[in-house]
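Case study B.
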Amino acid sequence: MSALSLLLVLFACLALGIPVAIALGLASIVTIALFADQSLAVLAQRFFSAMQVYPLLAVPFFILAGAFMTTGGVAKRLIAFANALVGHFQGGLAMAALLACAFFSAVSGSSPATVVAVGSIMIAGMQRSGYSKEFAAGLICNAGTLGILIPPSIVLVVYGAVTETSIRDLFIAGILPGLLLTAALLISVAVIARRKNMPRQPRADFATLLRTARVAIWGLLLIVIILGGIYMGVFTPTEAAAVAAVYAFFVAVFVYRDIRLREVPRVLTEGAKVTAMLMFIIGNAFLFGFVLTTEQIPQMASDWITSLGLPPWAFLIAVNLLLLLAGNFMEPTSVILILAPILFPIATELGIHPVHLGIIMTVNMEIGLITPPVGLNLFVTSGVAGMSAAAVVRAALPWLLVLLAVLIVITYVPAVSLSLPAMLN
Amino acid sequence: MHAAIRRLSLALDRLEEAFMGFALAFMTIVTFVQVALRAFGTGFVWSLEVTTYTFAWLVLIGMSYGVRTQAHIAVDFVTAKLPPRLARTAAVTALVLSLAYCVFMTLGSLVFVDRLMTLGNDARDIALPRWLLASVLPLGFALLGLRLVQAAWSSRRAAPERNP
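Model:
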């Protein structure tokens, strides 16, 4: 009964267009009022406690680091480097766009920002070099999603915080699947390029490669500092995020000089706005999770699933379908916040590793970003490329198949996610 | 009179933005300095608690700022497909329910702060009473309600032709 009320109120509120955060909170309040002997004061206290969860402190710092790195200048430098690296292959410009998306989305932490920054330069550039607009837009729309998997990833931080899974392990686990996905997209580009006889560019000489690398390295070092620092045990993920934010500030203001000192307050306010918006959802998700636990809903769901005698692989198919569906309607963090507390106990019961589940959920969310009706990347791409949303959906579709294939591999070969953390621990 | 109110409201908006930016910068620097100091085997005991409370203030003040800048994520593909009259009803219902949320959370927060006052103890590492640090909770939810009303009011005046 309480589970029904919780989900019913949630979906009704969402359908009415109430912000996700408030919908989560209202569903919790109503369910508590109807079924549980808890006071509103406990909910207020719970909400407050979300801001005292140490791993979640990484969220504002990563957002700030991303805010400093989300400039056209950073995108240009990464594109120049990627182009010097792979431009001379057949379809080289497309591969460069893909790599630039992977770099930029990892550094900026934002998929839509990647599509805007890389897309606004590369879609026009690829068209000038003889690629079709659909090919360029579809590729960049997909490649922009790589950032939520390649660490540092806020989605993984949120998953780790709600399920109390090590964020260090999640970050390290994200590396191989991220590389696998990038490689799969690269190979697809190469195959299509050969078949359609796409253009190649003159090979960049070694001096050019070195020069572009030296410029781009300042941005890419951000990933190295975070992963290296966490892995070597120099700092926690939260501390790594703070160091990354300070580093990004120095690079943006003093090395790249993309942002002037007097523009820094604006960047700070922008970062604070995104932080507050995200934490408002997370705080309410904590209420939601609290009600789930007090009403023992995950326990009941877990009992029900195990009573069905479902083998883990069948459960994983169900998880994928559920997540793909949810990802079509909500953005990644909200889906993780609502579904992770429910799926996590069931998965543990079935012997699925928490880190593996986190990676599966994240790759599903990538696909959600490029499927209608709420695929954020679709709309951003449509704006950048000047195409209708429907045209972008069609353009993105072939690449979606690559993502789906990789999702299947990541789901059914746990080693892709788990071997690297196991090796390093 | 109206001009004075508008100026005051504008000044409050600026103050809100400045506070949020400052809070984010402050918690980043405190955490960064803590990491740097640890390299020398030292540090502040209060660093973590100061950071988490600054974080809470940033979020609770920032919630209402998000309403003003329309930053909050909502699922709008259902309401976007409704005929205008139904869409308006949905919008009004959504507003009323959102306000109910603010009222419930403000009340709950007040009770929570009142309990902390009765307990009367200070924070662990900061020489400030806990109720004072938590007082941003009712303030934040009340401000959120205020901003929701404000946003609804201005959209009502801005787009009357959408509702035949």
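The mean pLDDT of chain A is 91. The remaining cases will be described in the next quarterly update.
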